[in-house]
Amino acid sequence: MIHSTEEILNLEEGGSLKLDWGKLQKVVAGGVEVLPVVVQDVDSKEVLTLAYVNREALHYTLEQRRVAFYSTSRNTLWVKGHTSGDTLELVEARVNCEQNSLLFLVRMLTGRSCHTLDREGHHRQSCYYRRFVSLDQLEHIEK
Length: 143
Prior knowledge:
Layout: H1 5-13, H2 23-29, E1 35-41, E2 47-53, H3 55-64, E3 68-71, E4 76-79, E5 88-95, E6 102-108, E7 130-134, E8 137-140
Parallel strand pairs: 1-6
Antiparallel strand pairs: 1-2, 3-4, 5-6, 7-8
């Protein structure tokens, strides 16, 4: 488990691979029923993030047309933008063939989608800002 600011910074900005292979086991152990949701920008088609929703987050999202998730690390409803100001408008919600994952097509109303900051101190557009160089090394994607 990651605790220190240095460990978080290394995870989010570092060049070494530290995949969380136990994430799904942790989610299951938490005892909350959730579904994974892929979040995609409706205009650019860029995948912004993968998150989880419980029933409450899904209902909120569909009713308010503003994206909400279930935070598996804080065990609470997470309405995107309440603290960061980075608001995502729901354009369309889809379900996959087995009804075990969702796709939210969104439009960014304010800010960006990722909680991490780029070199200029702005939130990143997408949570997928690094690519594999090798099996254990990553590099930042410069746009």
